[in-house]
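Q: I have 224 residues here and want to know how they pack in 3D. Can you give me a structure?
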Amino acid sequence: MFALREVLMRKAGRTPRRVLGGAAPRPGGTPARAAPAGLLAAALLLTATAASPSYAASPPSGSPSIGSAPPWAGSLRSQPPSTGTDQLYRYGYSLGFHPFTSPHDVREQLTGNFWLFPVSGDCPAVIHPADACDLLGGNPVRVEAIGYDSLQIATLPGHSLGEGMHIRFTFARSLGLHCLVVSAWQDRPTPCSERTLCSAASRAGAWALWRVLSETLTVSAYAA
């Protein structure tokens, strides 16, 4: 029967296929080599499913909530100009090495013990925003703002340097080394700032005065 079938297939132009013992097809018509491929695909699917992370217990990625602002927070009423004629001076002083003291601690020590200010005059020992008092020599000032690491005052009518002058004391720290930066500016030119000699003497006097303040705070900061 097999020989007759072979002859008929050759006449029809077809080449008979011989079935090898090791390559016999599996029931259902699926080749033997299809089984390992199917197992490999299933293994890859299980691996991908196991490797997918679950975010069910992860915290939300939204912005952190912001609590209520502390009493000293808030923008300062007047910002010092970076350049221009309204900028009077900007001095920097070292306050020494205080690794366990923050700039906020130094500022809090000054505003809570204002007698440390070299010309505190009749001002109270503890000052608050909007306080008005007379510095040494009867020079009236107002506490414009108290920030986390800064204090800002403004001169009032009757001050020897004129009205509308703003002075900000900013405290900073880097690698345990503290510094004080004093910036001064004015709303409009004053009679003193318009005269060269008076303006130069005012700047020199301010540099020396804030130098005394920095030396005082250099020592007192150990107790801040």
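Q: Anything worth noting?
A: Residues 196-220 form the longest helix (25 residues). The radius of gyration is 42 Å.
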